[in-house]
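Changelog-adjacent note: as of this version, every example in the card shows the full chain rather than a window. The one below runs 420 residues end to end.
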Amino acid sequence: MRSNADESPAGYALLRYYTRHCPACGNDQMRVRLTMRAAGLLAVLLALVVTAALAGRLRPAQLLAVSCCGRSGTTDVLLVDAQTGAQVNLTRTDAIDERELDVSVDGASAFVRVGAVEQEVCIIRPAQAERCLTDLGDGQAAPRWSPDGRELLITVLGQAGVSTLFIVSPETGRRTPLPSTGGSALQAQWSPDGQRIAVSSTTPMQSLLVVLDANGGPPRVLTNALRAYGWPRWSPDGRVLAFIDVHDRLALIGAEGGSVQTLTAHGIVHSLTWSPDGQAIAFAVDVDGQRDVVIRRLPDGQQQNISHGAGVASMPVWSPDGAMIAYILEIDHWRFRQKWLALYDIASGDTRRVLPISWSDVSAPAWSPDGTMLARILEIDHVGFRQKWLALYDIASGETRHVIPLGWADAGAPAWPGGA
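Full-length structure tokens:
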């Protein structure tokens, strides 16, 4: 079986040089193979050196990761310099996909590797070898770094619809199973202080909003089966949880429990996000067949439609400074629909379409940690076919920069350090 080192560009380059300058050795297959392996190892070492240089020269906030463009149509994990476009392929796997990428505040990438029969979470840091959590068994999914980047939350899908949550410490190797919620623990979310985890615990008969102590202890059920549904999201101060109830309405409940406050009376709420100061929630809602993005201001209860029926609006995300909201907008254009990245300015109330985006990109907008850029996947016509690119939109200048081509295969959402 041919190894990654055998197929490296450096391996083939050295093979060509070897056979050109030693014609008599051209049929020595063993020597050729050894030469290619040596060149491949040199290429791997060079990649580690380049990765270390990237990580050492740049702050983590300048790096972003994307899963894309592996060989044979599979996906690998790339580390990209947002300023220069320099890139390093961190995984280089064949016939295997890497998905569900999450990047810690210090630049460590966690992802799900999907093989022919297995599915496991792997961790890789710049200039270090990857580690896969094979001891947790098959069915691993949804890796989520803690806010400080020291621990990783993993969902392990089990039989009969029951999943188990594990907290993994990459530094110590400690694996801590969290208490069972009695169902599938979905949409797990770390609290801002990293001490608690909110999940939607779902069975065929009910859905509960549950809070787990990251350090152990019994689960705390916040809602009964008639009130909860999903999308739990912590307020920035960790005191309140917003969620979508069983009637598809936006609702709030205290992190310690108590009464549920319903914020919407009509429509179907799809996604939600807190403002950085915790004073407002932006969400997408369907009312009478029209989907818009709405801001609900909590102190006075006022609601403001910011997309105004311009199209199908969804996936709002606040900028880190709370000055803008980015969202996805689908609009009719002649005989087809076009998908755009839209920006709403809180101070001026202006909305502008800034970037046409790929139809296959179904992820939420990805703000850089400093709020100066938005990362997206674009599709661009190129000599008779459409090619995907990782692109950055600069907020100050309004310019779009095509950073690296991603080929034609599926590409995952770009991930900034800390999940920004």
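Structural remarks: The chain is about 10% helix and 45% strand.
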